[in-house]
């Protein structure tokens, strides 16, 4: 799964992002519209972490989404 799939199905993945980053509001998640850079920036802002830390969190989350998708296909 690549980020284009997340972006294209953002409504589907938004709930998982909300679980992962509970400080982000629905409005903030809606504004990101699945755009990775915007999500990274929102996480960075909400949690007071560096861009690198935020990028790593998003990468780990994406990996979890890939694994979840694989499990659903079984």
Summarize the SSE layout with pairings.
Blueprint: H1 3-8, H2 10-20, H3 26-32, H4 36-47, H5 51-73
Helix pairs in contact: 3-4, 4-5
CATH class wording: Mainly Alpha
**CATH structural architecture:** Orthogonal Bundle
| Overall tally of domains | 1
Terminal Cα span: 16 Å
Look up the CATH topology: Protein Yjbj, Chain: A
**Which parts are unreliable, with pLDDT below 50 for 5 consecutive residues or more?**
none
Order of helices and strands: HHHHH
Determine the number of helices (DSSP H or I, runs of at least 4 residues): 5
Using the alpha-carbon principal axes, give the shape: globular
Fraction of residues in H or I helices: over 70%
Let me know the average pLDDT: 93
Share of residues in strands: under 5%
What is the SS-derived class?
mainly alpha
Q: Give a count of the beta strands, DSSP E runs of length 2 or more.
A: 0
- Looking at CATH, the homologous superfamily is YjbJ
Instruction: Give a quick account of the main beta sheet: strands, pairing sense, barrel closure.
Output: none
Round the Cα radius of gyration to an integer and report it: 12 Å
What does this protein look like?
The chain is mostly helical and 74 residues long. The chain has a single domain, classed as Protein Yjbj, Chain: A, CATH 1.10.1470.10. Helix content is 80%, strand content 0%. The chain is built from 5 helices and no strands. The longest helix has 23 residues, at 51-73. It is globular, with a radius of gyration of 12 Å. The two termini are 16 Å apart.
């Amino acid at each position: 799964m690549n980020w284009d799939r997340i972006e294209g199905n953002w409504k589907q993945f938004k709930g998982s992002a909300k679980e992962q980053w509970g400080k982000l509001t629905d409005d903030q998640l809606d504004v990101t519209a699945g755009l990775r850079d915007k999500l990274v920036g929102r996480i960075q802002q909400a949690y007071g972490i560096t861009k690198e830390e935020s990028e790593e969190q998003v990468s780990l989350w994406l990996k979890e989404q890939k694994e979840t998708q694989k499990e659903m296909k079984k």
